[in-house]
Amino acid sequence: LKAGTLERLVVHLLDPERRESDFIHVFLSTYKAFTASSTLIELLFKRDDSLTDPDNSVSLHSPLVSLVQLWLEEYSEDFREPPQYPTLGLLCAYMRRRIRFRRVLHIAETLLKRLQEQGSRLSA
């Protein structure tokens, strides 16, 4: 995809037929040049909601689950925004409302706790 809009890039990221590891890594390495993390989170979950069971009663596989896990594990610096960590808080809020994100939510909450502890040590 060349010169795609952010919305088109999100569609491509979450298309289960076009899961390209290289594209995902390049996107996560560069998106901050053209959008905020909070905007990306909102668009990702909006798109994911349009593709999955609206009442969240069925735990359908979502490409977003693995994308968020990768983002948290390999690009955790994107969420280092002391002292409140608003982007990570927003991500956790979206995941709390979706059953299929339970395991990844634990990763995010653990990261938040670690970042808060690091921040406390640095400010002490």
Automatic annotation (TrEMBL):
Alphabetized UniProt keyword annotations: Guanine-nucleotide releasing factor
Residue ranges of coiled coil: none
Gene3D superfamilies cross-referenced by the UniProt entry: Son of sevenless (SoS) protein Chain: S domain 1
Matching PROSITE patterns: RASGEF_NTER
Boundaries of every N-terminal Ras-GEF domain copy: 1-116
SMART domains in alphabetical order: RasGEFN
GO molecular function, one term: guanyl-nucleotide exchange factor activity
InterPro entries: Ras-like_Gua-exchang_fac_N, Ras_GEF_dom_sf
PANTHER family: 1700018F24RIK PROTEIN-RELATED-RELATED, RIKEN CDNA 4930596D02 GENE
Protein name per its UniProtKB record: Ral guanine nucleotide dissociation stimulator-like 3a
UniProt organism field: Nothobranchius kadleci (African annual killifish)
Taxonomy of the source species: Eukaryota, Metazoa, Chordata, Craniata, Vertebrata
Gene assigned in the entry: RGL3A
